[in-house]
Every structure is written in structure tokens, then in C-alpha cells.
Specification:
- 49% of the residues lie in helices and 0% in strands.
- It is mainly alpha-helical.
- The chain is elongated and about 55 Å long.
- The model has no long low-confidence stretch (mean pLDDT 84).
Length: 49
């Protein structure tokens, strides 16, 4: 672990500290399950899968 920390300490600051930070995560898109897919999973539940 010490070797890893020492290796990371040697990485130039220009690489580890970006001038422009990453954007914040986006909200997840909404989704729905169609009737055909719901029936398929209901059938699997009947078999205990």
C-alpha cells in the first residue's frame, strides 16, 4: 500500500487536478415496463425463477 501511495504522489498535479471538474451526475431517466415484458416475468415467477 505504501508503494502505491508513493507512486500516486508522483503523478503531476496537472493530471490529478483537472482545470475543469467533472459535471454533476444527471438524474436517471424515467422508464416503464410494457405489458408483454411484465407477463414474461410473471410467468418466470410462477416457476420460481
Amino acid at each position: 500500500m505504501t508503494e502505491l501511495i508513493e507512486d500516486c504522489a508522483g503523478i503531476p498535479r496537472s493530471i490529478t487536478h483537472a482545470e475543469h471538474p467533472l459535471p454533476a451526475p444527471r438524474a436517471a431517466a424515467s422508464w416503464e415496463v410494457d405489458e408483454s415484458t411484465a407477463r414474461r416475468f410473471d410467468a418466470l415467477n410462477d416457476y420460481g425463477v
